[in-house]
Every structure is written in C-alpha cells, then in structure tokens.
Amino acid sequence: MIAEGLGRLFGHGRPRVLALVDLVQDIDILLPVLIALRDDGRLALRILVSRWLERESPRTGGLLQAHGLKFSYERRQRIVDGSAPRLDQIAAVLSAAESTHPAHRAGHALAERAGARGIRTYTLQHGLESVGLTGVGATQGRFASEAVFCWFPENATPPELSAETRAKLAHVGRPAPPGGWTPQAPPQFDLAVYENLHWDRYGEAERDAFVAGLRAVAQSCPDLRIMLRPHPAGGWGETLRHEFAHFPGLTISGGAEARSALTSTAQSPALAARVITTPSTVALDAALAGRPVALAVNGGSIYTPLQVLECPGD
Predict the structure, then answer these.
(1) What pLDDT does 264 receive?
(2) Predicted TM-score of the model (pTM)
C-alpha cells in the first residue's frame, strides 16, 4: 500500500526515492516496502545504508543483497552533519526511524535537509511502541517528515498525540515481511523467551523477576526446549550464559548472531510453539504467526488483551 501510494503521488516518469537504512532494526521495517517499490516500477529507488551497520549488523546488507536490492554505504556522521548524501534529482526521502529522539538523529537530519529543499519526506512507524506515536514514547518526539505511515487505523489514534503529528499520519497498516507471518516449518523450540531489558524503562526488580521466572521454567520443565533471545541491539540476556549453563534445554541466542541472520526478525517468533516476551513488537509478531504469547512484564493498554506473567509461578 505504501509503494502504491507513492507511485500514484508522483505519477508518470521515474522520480527517484532515497531510502535511508540507519539502525539495526531498520531493515525489518523497510525491507517489504523497498521490495514493493522496486517491483512497482514507477519509482527509481536509491538505498543508502549507514556505514556502521556493515560491521554491527551484517544482516542489513545481506538481506538487501538476498532480495536483489542495490545499495551504497555512507558514514552516519556525514548524514547527521548534512554533508551527505547529495540530494540532486531526489524527489522523495523515506526513512524507517525519524524523530527528534537522539537515536533517530540521522534520519531526522536528512528529513530536515530534504524538506528545506522542497523534497517530499516520509517515515514509518518503527514498532508497536514507536517514539512520537505509540507506547511510552508517544509524546517524546516530533517528526520532520511531512508524512508518517502508521500501523493503526484512524479511530485508534492515541489521544495524546499533538495536532501537528495527527496531521502527518497516513493510516496504511503494517507492512508484512517477505513470505508473511505464516510459519514455514514446525517449531524448533517449545518456548521462546524474548527480552529487551537493556532499556532504561526497566528497573533491577523487573530484571530480577524475569531471571527468576526463566529459572523456574528451566528447573520445573527440564525437557522443554527453550530459546532465550536478547534484543539484537542490546544483548542484556547474553549476560545469563554462565548462570544458566547447567540447563541443557536452554539455548541463549547471541545478539551478534541475530544481527547476522538472514531471516526477518518479525518471523522469528514462529520458530517456537509458545512465546513469552517483555513488552515489544515481538508480541504482535507472535500473535500474527498464530503462536500463544504472554508478557513477562506489564506493558500497558497497548498490549491488551495479552496475559501478563506476574510471578515465577505464572
């Protein structure tokens, strides 16, 4: 739908769209849109990847290559300070993450520079909880882009959003990963446990409760095949390797491994028969894959009606 809308907007000819891939998670958000833009044929696509991802997230370049999408690298600092990329003959700029939040400074700088030159600017909702749109960060960022493609319908727009942000929303739904969410093979694990506990929204009490719950499951169900998957950009759960090494059924996936795997993060919950996660988009991914899912920590109303595991016994 995003690709079709852009194609209709620019009409005939082949206007050039510059797409920025800047953060570790960006490729999962942008990939289905980039494929659709390429296949639509009405727009010429230029893909720019922040150079730091070549080292920190090799899957970014690997996934683009696997889908036949040409791209080039640019140093992130040059994007932030405005010395790159050149915007000659660019009709539109598309980013996966753009706001006044410090983590989004490259996308924000590019959108501001493009907008000042009269170039159309677009960004995407980055997750179930997205800075400037939804969840705990709904009011913590403003967008330079003129349009924000969001997942939720207009009647579900968070009431706390400013009039400025509301005017920029384009309610298009969530782009499906290549192949959709339908599981392609039988589950490899009985239970997948996801965590993003590196985030400063969590305190030590919540981290301790998460570890106690994981230990309770591993001890009471020794034959259960369990995968613990830390957030690929945080890796907090990797610190538990030594503490849980004596549980043979527990596999702890490394962040570096996740940043190299040529699979969609959105499809990974389908690898398990059941899913437990701290509040994140994983909860939505699991539900879309038809997997039973529960929250390890209360995430608020945006996760209704998922069950919250209140104690290790749960």
Answers:
(1) 75
(2) 0.90
